[in-house]
Design goal:
Protein name: Diazepam-binding inhibitor-like 5
Subcellular location: Cytoplasm
Order of helices and strands: HHHH
Radius of gyration: 13 Å
GO molecular function, one term: fatty-acyl-CoA binding
Main location: cytoplasm
Number of helices: 4
Family: Belongs to the ACBP family.
Largest sheet: none
Strand content: under 5%
């Protein structure tokens, strides 16, 4: 598993045409953030900012996970979405 595979998965995600559920988007986002930035180190947004709060919570759930593990899971999730789209 390496940076190149991660970057290819990032590019592949942008090419998906089929619908991706909000839950799937949050999950992929959370692993992307963990892989690229590590543990969430920003304060939680206010509850009134629903989308920002959901993204923060998703990323924060990965606290303690290594960047490499997050990359592996991200790549795996993107592969799942690609297979789902192919039918």
């Amino acid at each position: 598993m390496c940076q190149v595979e991660f970057e290819l998965a990032c590019a592949a995600l942008k090419q998906l045409k089929g619908p991706v559920s909000d839950q799937e988007k949050l999950l992929v986002y959370s692993f992307y953030k963990q892989a690229t930035e590590g543990d969430c180190d920003i304060p939680a947004p206010p509850v009134t900012e629903v989308k920002a709060k959901a993204k923060w919570e998703a990323w924060n759930q990965n606290k303690g996970m290594s960047k490499m593990d997050a990359m592996r899971i991200y790549i795996s999730k993107v592969e799942e979405l690609k297979k789902k789209e192919e039918g």
